[in-house]
Design brief:
The structure is a homodimer of 313-residue chains.
Chain A lengths: L3 H8 L3 H9 L6 H14 L5 H7 L5 E6 L5 H16 L3 E6 L4 H13 L4 E4 L8 H7 L4 E4 L10 E5 L1 H14 L5 E4 L6 H16 L13 E4 L2 H13 L9 E3 L16 E3 L2 H18 L5 E5 L2 E3 L10
The structure holds a DNA duplex (16 and 16 nucleotides).
DNA sequence: GTGAAAGCGCTAACAT
DNA sequence: ATGTTAGCGCTTTCAC
């Protein structure tokens, strides 16, 4: 593999001159610049990012940790993050942690050992130590669609879960629903529990309490679309019709929710915007070196489709 | 951040001794070993992987390039790859290329600059130069679910597209279909075009030719489930009933295909197995240093659901 | 069994 | 405007 030295020799200059040309430093005579550029083109030289990383203070790599890449919302966020990262010259290290605290810890340590410049967290276990672990090692952390952490070094790009939940509950209420239940995939997940809380609060505003279980409920609110769609399937296999017998609402508005056969009423939140913005924030933090608490909330909106209906008395 | 030297000083030994302990080298007296281990525990030292990478010949990082992480088949493969990579101590660099030749090239160069130990390719453009680019730089490449490249340095973990297509076509034939059309998302994609070819060959065996377009066809075979499901939606929005008016078949058997409201007849192929195996192969190649042509084909099977039906005459 | 020293490829003072 | 040099943190001969 060609190195800086190879190019330098070929161009008959010193390493630093080549380095200066590569990095676009001002003080190089246009004559030598051309000569170096020719040598670079001839050899196909690209700086060794590993050496740069060791020497400099940056790996231009960021990590993204997610509970499950198979969730289209996360996949979409990751794609957006990857695109944004690329554009800024950063690579993305992907890690699935399945909300397993041990895996989260090990992932965190691996990310630290690899000296990533920052980490985007798109989902973690309830009470996870991952943000603190990373921050304590001086690594900037951005929480994406996962607000509510109180560390003052954290930057947060969030969805308006509270607002979204209010709108969902209001929508169901207006359809006559009074018994609504919340379901989530796992009690371990931070985001799911936050939405459960928001759900309870929204109900409370209308003087209602969450239904204990699906049995008594006329409507089910799932913590995300993936789960809502799975629940829909499960119910229908038991002969319960949606929305005739039971209404279902999701959260995220993944593309599939708009499929005519699914028609899931849900809350639209912009995974692409969140992923992209998370990268911008993490890169800014990495480059400036100061970690300050930041919180941006992306608006949500209700998309009414065919999975919710008027309650039958 | 603690370095080897910090630990060495703390333990009152030299850098090399600490290094020997860390790497589990034999010849260290158990006495000093303990002392060093204590110092490591006390400082929370973890080797700097960047320095290791620069010094050694390995970054213990592999790249995975995909056209679209939003495709559940790719997401699943990536999750499996990440898990396998993790287990072997490797990190995964994810890159979406959208089958754009320019992006592929740039991604390849970035991966080379980062000195990844190997690259798994889960999808590329037709006639892409990416495999050659990487291989020419000495980077092992494994094609996952994307066979048919003829470079002798390539290892391939493939799905049996030909076999799967035969079974699909036979299934449709048995249902009375004689006019079948193939649709794919993009003409640019390698895997899609390969399946198109397989489709034609399968038809030919039965003395049939592909239908020119959807119009004349009684059945549609899509190059993957994602596309099949999208087409299903599109058709039904036009008032065409599936399968009453038109049968649809996918390929991959993503989880959604089994959803009762979708019920997509498709070919099951094991994304998890493919992703995991691809990592094993790439790591083996990276560690042994020799690139030999290898081809493993994973069996497929037909899953008949409700998107295909007897043709109405 | 342990330590000293060279060097991976690069950047960034500092000298010229 | 260009060159020299000293490391970044680690592994790896090679002496002791």
């Amino acid at each position: 593999m060609t190195t800086l030295l190879d190019v330098a020799r070929k161009a008959g200059v010193s390493k630093s001159t080549v380095s200066n040309v590569v990095r676009g430093v001002e003080f190089v005579s246009s004559e030598t610049r051309v000569r170096v550029e020719l040598a670079i083109a001839a050899t196909g030289y690209r700086p060794n990012e590993i050496a740069r990383a060791l020497r400099g203070r940056s790996t231009t790599a960021i990590g993204i940790v997610l509970p499950d890449l198979r969730n289209p919302f996360h996949a979409e966020m990751t794609v957006a993050a990857e695109r944004a990262a690329n554009r800024l010259g950063y690579a993305l290290l992907a890690a699935n942690t399945e909300c397993d605290p041990e895996l989260e810890e090990e992932t965190g340590r691996a990310l630290i050992a690899r000296r990533v410049d920052g980490v985007i967290i798109g989902g973690i276990s309830l009470g996870s130590h991952l943000p603190k672990l990373l921050l304590d090692h001086g690594i900037p952390v951005t929480l994406a669609s996962l607000g509510d952490h109180k560390d003052p070094r954290l930057s947060i790009v969030d969805t308006d879960d509270r607002g979204g939940m209010d709108v969902i509950v209001r929508h169901l209420f207006d359809l006559g629903h009074r018994k609504m239940a919340f379901v989530s995939q796992s009690l371990q997940e931070h985001a799911g529990e936050r939405r459960r809380l928001a759900f309870s609060q929204s109900l409370l505003q209308l003087g209602l309490r969450p239904a204990r279980s699906r049995q008594g409920a006329t409507a089910i609110v799932a913590h995300n679309d993936m789960h809502a769609i799975a629940v829909m399937d499960e119910l229908e296999r038991q002969g319960i019709r949606v929305p005739a017998d039971l209404s279902i609402v999701g959260f995220d508005d993944i593309p599939l929710a708009a499929h005519r056969r699914i028609g899931l009423t849900t809350i639209r939140s912009d995974a692409t915007a969140i992923g992209g913005r998370a990268v911008e924030l993490i890169v800014k933090a990495a480059q400036s070196g100061n970690l300050q608490s930041t919180r941006e909330v992306f608006a949500t909106s209700l998309v009414v489709r065919s999975s919710t209906g008027r309650v039958m008395v």
